[in-house]
Amino acid sequence: MELIEIAPPSPYYLEMFLKVGDRTFCYPQGSFSHRIWCMLILSIGLTISLPAKASGTESGDRVRIASGVRRCTESGGKIDAQIIRGASVLRAGSIFPVVVLRALDAGTATVGQTVKGTVANDVVLSNTVFIPRASTVEGWICDVQKPRKVLSAKFSATHWWNAQALINIHFASLRFPDGRQFQISAGPAPSTEVDPNCAVPNSADRKPQTSELIVSRSGAIGPNYNGIKYGAAGAAIGPLSWMAGPFSMLAGTTLSATTGAIAPSYAFDRRIARPDAADRTKGFLVGAVKGLPGGFILTGVANHGGNVSIAAGTEIQVRLNSDLVIPNK
């Protein structure tokens, strides 16, 4: 964060701007009215510019090489294992990568639908292979939610306040290439990304990008959308606009519209990964409506959450919920 001094062409212009990352926001200098407006815009800008909470992935989950290509883990994820007499034990909490064999979509998926995958790499610790590469896992979808209207989500008894789609998977069996089969209890590892860069293994054309899907603390796969951040921005607009006195309605609409243009995800209540000029224009208009008294009702009826679509070949991090005992051959 840095302050940039600018020589004002007249006393009615702001003298300084606050730069946060690649965005620049006004800094309160000059007349009282300018300070009020500047503080309003600055507060919203800072809220939108705050980075999302770290996904919580382990340092060994993936590496970024010098060429800028993000590649999937070679080590097999986070491992907690023990070798005992006559068996190897993979402890609960161990994480390993699994490649989904068939596409999944929250819009068409159903509870009980079979999910199959293959272990992407050898799960290794201290030169001991606990789960060999190409082992297969099988389970089912234990919870699914289609994207729904934002307003209806606020009055729903299930997944209250969450309009985003989600898919939760339970893996119940593991089969080694040599035919040995084990019962397991596992699912997507909380706070890890479902990485689209791993959809094409060992591809030199793979380009690094921010994952659009993330696993929640409950283990459900959903859009990488920080509803708390945008909700805080919306909640801040009301009290800040009151500072404008008789112009509070105009101030609220202007602030909401500006926020929608800066971050269209705020206006549409879902993740807009790489907004273009058209998205920002629409975000400005929808944000203006959202800033009107009762405008959240109109946008709540029109807006819906983001969908969850997982392509075949996508890699997810799977966490064991209970110990896996592997007898020696």
Description:
The protein is of the alpha+beta class and 329 residues long. It folds into 2 domains: 128 residues, no CATH class; 178 residues, Lipocalin (Beta Barrel), CATH 2.40.128. It has 7 helices and 21 strands. Strands 8-10-13-14-15-20 form a 6-stranded antiparallel β-barrel. Helix 1 runs antiparallel to helix 3, helix 3 packs antiparallel against helix 4 and helix 6 crosses helix 7. The longest helix has 18 residues. It starts with a strand and ends with a strand. 36% of the residues are buried.
Instruction: Say which CATH homologous superfamily of the largest domain is assigned.
Output: Type IV secretion system, VirB10/TraB/TrbI
- The computed structural class is alpha+beta
Question: What spatial order of strands do you see in the largest sheet?
Answer: 8-10-13-14-15-20
The CATH architecture of the largest domain can be named as Beta Barrel
Report the top-level CATH class of the largest domain.
Mainly Beta
DSSP, total strands: 21
Q: Tell me about the biggest sheet?
A: 6 strands, antiparallel, barrel
**In CATH terms, what is the fold-level topology of the largest domain?**
Lipocalin
- Distance between the ends: 59 Å
- Low confidence ranges: 1-30, 49-76, 199-209
Provide key terms for this protein.
24% helix, Lipocalin, 7 helices, 2 domains, disordered N terminus, elongated, alpha+beta, three-stranded antiparallel sheet, six-stranded antiparallel barrel, 329 residues
